[in-house]
Design a protein that fits this description.
299 residues, alpha+beta, 10 helices
């Protein structure tokens, strides 16, 4: 279950047709039928045109055509199944067919890049390990009305998200998928910060997609994660020491009371940590990102 490109927004300049200029209620553009939408803002009435094709929303405002929503859902009907490189190309071909505009003409304004990764641990446990990005930007819970299903870190120019894909799919699509599917995505909200991808045509370029993957891996390397804990191999004294050692003040007091015993306790604490803290799965996820993308690119 993998995908690379999902939600996006793009726009291009067009030559307004006679019907657009005359503000007709219904217009034809390319192979799409548009309907006029009137919105009142104060004393002004704004008219634009909208059309939808499966999941995609097409909008014409004066001399500009914009397209938004999920390319994956548009082409596949869902966003949890496979969406291969060849299918992405077919999707772009069809957008060109519907609008009569070459992919090079569409400027990408917003882009969601991500992968669904199969992990050795259930996704919700890995999500719990996420702490900060670059040791200063905290991850915050992603919630709906009934549950917490992921975490995200919002920066000024992009958003990093991790979530349990099985929870989201079960909630939205009423479908059960394995619990070890971790969704990792980077959402670029501003066109000037989207790496490598400037036009819709760029999504056909494997080298530029590889650059996008490498960028996402570099973001992931800067994420601070806790290890998953397993207390089955330690006794009650070890558990007490583990939680006490999490507090800085505990070690300050130990040094004041006895410097030598404090050092001994530090050695015991490190052993307890080795017994209790399991992998934080960073290396596994980095490898999975590369493997999934290579699999996607070759299909």
């Amino acid at each position: 279950m993998e995908k690379v490109i999902d939600n996006c927004k793009m726009s291009c300049l067009i030559n307004p047709t006679k019907d657009i200029i005359q503000r007709e209620t219904f217009i034809q553009f390319g192979r799409l039928q548009f309907v006029g939408v009137r919105k009142k803002y104060g004393d002004f009435e704004i008219l634009y045109y909208e059309a939808s094709e499966r999941n995609l929303l097409f909008r014409i405002t004066d001399n500009q055509l914009s397209i938004s929503n999920s390319l994956h859902k548009f082409w596949k009907g869902d966003n949890y199944s496979d969406f291969s490189f060849s299918e992405l190309n077919e999707c772009i071909d069809h957008i060109e067919y519907l609008t009569g505009i070459n992919a090079k003409g569409y400027k990408i304004q917003r882009l969601e890049f991500g992968l669904n990764i199969s992990t050795s641990q259930i996704a919700s446990e890995i999500v719990k390990c996420l702490k900060t990005y670059k040791k200063k930007y905290p991850f915050k819970d992603m919630q709906d009305k009934t549950q917490t299903y992921g975490k995200k870190c919002e920066l000024s120019e992009y958003i990093i998200k991790f979530y349990d894909k099985s929870k989201q799919v079960k909630k939205v699509d009423r479908i059960v998928i394995p619990e070890n599917i971790l969704r990792y995505e980077v959402v670029y909200e501003k066109k000037r910060v989207i790496p490598y991808i400037k036009t819709l045509e760029d999504l056909r370029n494997p080298e530029k997609l590889i650059g996008l993957v490498e960028k996402s891996k570099s973001y992931f390397q800067n994420i601070v994660m806790d290890g998953i804990t397993d207390f089955s191999k330690t006794d009650s004294r070890g558990r007490d020491l583990f939680f006490a050692g999490l507090e800085k003040e505990f070690w300050n007091i130990e040094r004041i009371l006895s410097k030598d015993k404090g050092k001994e306790k530090k050695v015991r604490y490190k052993k307890v940590c080795n017994d209790v803290i399991q992998s934080n799965y960073k290396n596994e996820i980095i490898q999975a990102i590369s493997e999934k993308f290579n699999e996607l690119l070759g299909s």
